[in-house]
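Lab notes, practical 5.
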Amino acid sequence: MAGATTAQRGTPSPDRPGRPPRKGAGSTEPPKSPKPAKPVKWNVPRGPGKQLRRVPALASLAAAVLLVAGGSWVLYGSSWLRVEKVTATGTDVLTPEQVISAAAVPVGAPLVGIDTDEIESRVRGRLPRIDSVDAVRAWPHGIGLKVTERKPVLLIKKDANFVEVDASGVRFDTVPKAPAGVPVLELNAGGSPSARRFDEERLLHEAVLVAGSLPAPIAGQTVQVKVGSYDSIVLELTGGRSVRWGSGEQSDAKGRALTALLKAAPKAAHFDVSVPTAPAAAGS
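Output from the prediction step:
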């Protein structure tokens, strides 16, 4: 009896009322799995990050604005890049001072704001002798004018003066004295049968065509270009020599033929190159 009593005290009955059975000790219910841990949420403030990204962009924009403003001030507002000097090159009959005066470049104006096209147009308009002009900025303080003057190939007598005509037929100046080495036009086509068909302007064009095509050595010896009709042009050379030229057609070939004749017959007084493939020389 005593042993039974001891066993009863040491081993509690699973069916003992008032006490729930212990888990894992004679219990058939499976143990519950632990709940998964919830992820930790890190609350990162977004506002300051956006502001940090905006700062470099704003700084770059501000730098660009300052750079443009500074550059504009240097070009237009400062005294560093303003016109202080105007030069002219390429003149022959004219003087550099005449070209500079005609250009009327506003000294003291910002160099970047100078209208070079307007300057070129002004020079050509005021000085008809100028064939071309190139106005360039010479940084940091200058404007350079490079000009090309027209060259007369023929002179038209007008009262006591002479009108200069270039190879394009442009009458660009009137001078009191005939330039050396430039022939004078003698137009006498009033009695020509072709006078109605070829007026004075057309005959002048033919004379200019002939004079402009003469090789330099022959042009220097030509004193007069006589025009009697469209196909009757005669050159008067120094030393009393004359050349029957014909019309203005094939003038380049006629110039080469005359050059050869002058070398072959240096003492001849009359030359005929009206047909350049069959030139002739006569007299002495």
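Observations recorded by the TA: The longest helix spans residues 47-77. The helical segments are 2-10, 47-77, 96-103, 116-126, 200-213, 216-219, 251-264.
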